[in-house]
C-alpha cells in the first residue's frame, strides 16, 4: 500500500505544494510545529533516509537549502531547522521548521487544528519567495 506521502504526490490526497521536480516535492505540514513548517519528500517511496540513493539524498538537501532560504526571509525566528526523524510515516521526509530553539522541535508543539486558509497563505508566501530567489521553474502555480 502506498504511503500517505505517495498518495499526496499522486494527487489522491490534496497537498499544499511549494516545490515539484522530477525527484522530489515539498508541501506544507498539515500539523505544523511552527508557521512555515513543511516537508521535502522524495518521489521514490523509501522508508529509511539512508536507503535512498546518495544522489537522491543530495538532491533533497539541495532543495531543502533553497526552501530554507525562502523560509528565512519570511520568518521572524532565528533559524530554519532541519530534521529527519523517520518514525511517523514510512516514507523519507525532511522537516523544515522556523524555530528559535531545539525545544520547539517537539512534535507535542504541533498545531493539530491548523486553519487551511493559514496553510494556503503560507504556501503562497513561500512560493513567491522561491520565485523571487530565482527558483520559479520548480514552483507550482498558486
From TrEMBL:
One of its GO terms (biological process) is nucleotide metabolic process. This is HIT family protein. PROSITE patterns: HIT_2. It comes from the Bacteria. GO terms for molecular function: catalytic activity. InterPro entries: Histidine_triad_HIT (IPR001310), HIT-like (IPR011146), HIT-like_sf (IPR036265). It holds the Pfam family HIT. Gene3D superfamilies: HIT-like. Residues 4-109 form the HIT domain. A motif (Histidine triad motif) lies at residues 91-95. The active site is at residue 93.
Amino acid at each position: 500500500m502506498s504511503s500517505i506521502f505517495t498518495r499526496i504526490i499522486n494527487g489522491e490526497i490534496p497537498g499544499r505544494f511549494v516545490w515539484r521536480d522530477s525527484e522530489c516535492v515539498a508541501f506544507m505540514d498539515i500539523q505544523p510545529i511552527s508557521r512555515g513548517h513543511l516537508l521535502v519528500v522524495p518521489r521514490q517511496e523509501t522508508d529509511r533516509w539512508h536507503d535512498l540513493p546518495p544522489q537522491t539524498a543530495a538532491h533533497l538537501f539541495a532543495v531543502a537549502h533553497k526552501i530554507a532560504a525562502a523560509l528565512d526571509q519570511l520568518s521572524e525566528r532565528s533559524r530554519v531547522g532541519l530534521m529527519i526523524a523517520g518514525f511517523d510515516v514510512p516514507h523519507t521526509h525532511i522537516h523544515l521548521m522556523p524555530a528559535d530553539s531545539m525545544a520547539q522541535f517537539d512534535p507535542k508543539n504541533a498545531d493539530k487544528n491548523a486553519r487551511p486558509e493559514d496553510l494556503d497563505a503560507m504556501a503562497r508566501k513561500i512560493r513567491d519567495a522561491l520565485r523571487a530567489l530565482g527558483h520559479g521553474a520548480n514552483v507550482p502555480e498558486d
